[in-house]
Amino acid sequence: MRISSCAKSNIMVIITAMTKIAVKIKDFSFKYPDATVALENINLDIAHKERVGIVGPNGAGKSTLLLAIGNFLKSQAPVEIDGMLSTKDNIKKIRQKLGVLFQNPNDQLFMPRLFDDVTFGPLNMGLSKEEVILRSKEALRSVGLLDKKDKQPHHLSAGEKRAAAIATVLAMKPEIITMDEPDSSLDPRSQNKLIELLNQMSQTLIIATCNVNFIARVCNKIVLMDSGKIIAIGNRKEILGNQELMNKHGLEVPAQLISDD
């Protein structure tokens, strides 16, 4: 049975209406105090459950864009998280929706015991002791570190620290998680474990990295940035598989996409 163009159009309208937007950025620009333009006229919609990879060369603005999404930057064009504008009145609600994984896991592991780090967020949400313990154990179990809950974080390996930092975020049960270079400083084995973990997660994921081979194994939607601007948005094959586009912006086509061909 063939579907008419009119019917197809109506179907697309219905699908669009049903798609709930997790992050909406419209005409967002940001300058650093020295007048350096970090982001220029950023427009981006990210739907719930999408896995979005933000790629680009060093200095492209990837980390700054994550800061904008995390509501750490001030702009005349506020970011919208799950339908809420990033205003002072909404920040607390937004913080419950949005989890942030920093580039350096040590920024999120500062307590004398791993379990204390994981419980820190839920405790500050005002949850009961029972709920905090339940969430924290569940988060550590999901990243494979429950048996190391009593360890000092600085005794963990680089891969374990990264997984532990993710657990601190998961314990707060956010619907949206941003990650800045989560693959940095990881050996191939630890990267593979991280990829397996990310591919099991159900949250909306927004990951910034220079490592296109890593992102090709995790994300389906790709945002290519350069010089503070969004250059292109599309699916993994459209963006990462476009050799001319990638080379123009200092990147290479991921080995996985080449082997798939």
Largest sheet: 6 strands, mixed
Average of per-residue pLDDT values? 90
CATH class, named Alpha Beta
Summed up, the helix count is 11
N-to-C CA distance: 32 Å
Q: What sort of overall outline do the alpha carbons produce when their principal axes are compared?
A: globular
How many β-strands, per DSSP? 10
Radius of gyration: 19 Å
Instruction: Give the strand order of the largest sheet, numbering strands 1, 2, ... along the chain.
Output: 6-7-8-3-9-10
What's the CATH architecture?
3-Layer(aba) Sandwich
Please give the share of residues in helix: 25-40%
CATH topology: Rossmann fold
Number of domains: 1
- Our estimate of the beta-strand percent is 15-25%
The named CATH superfamily: P-loop containing nucleotide triphosphate hydrolases
Low-confidence stretches: 5-17
Keywords for this structure?
261 residues; alpha/beta; Rossmann fold; six-stranded mixed β-sheet; four-stranded antiparallel β-sheet; 11 helices; 10 strands; 39% helix; 23% strand; globular
What does this structure look like?
With 261 residues, this protein is α/β, with parallel strands linked by helices. It has a single domain (20-260), classed as P-loop containing nucleotide triphosphate hydrolases (Rossmann fold, 3-Layer(aba) Sandwich). 39% of the residues lie in helices and 23% in strands. The chain has eleven helices and ten strands. It has helices spanning 5-18, 62-69, 91-97, 114-124, 129-142, 158-170, 188-200, 212-215, 236-240, 243-248, 255-260, and strands spanning 21-31, 37-47, 51-55, 80-81, 84-85, 98-101, 176-180, 204-209, 221-226, 229-235. The strands form two sheets. Strands 6-7-8-3-9-10 form a six-stranded mixed sheet, with helices on both faces. A hairpin with a 5-residue loop joins strand 1 and strand 2. The longest helix is centred in the N-terminal third of the chain and has 14 residues, at 5-18. It is globular, with a radius of gyration of 19 Å. The two termini are 32 Å apart. The relative contact order is 0.16.
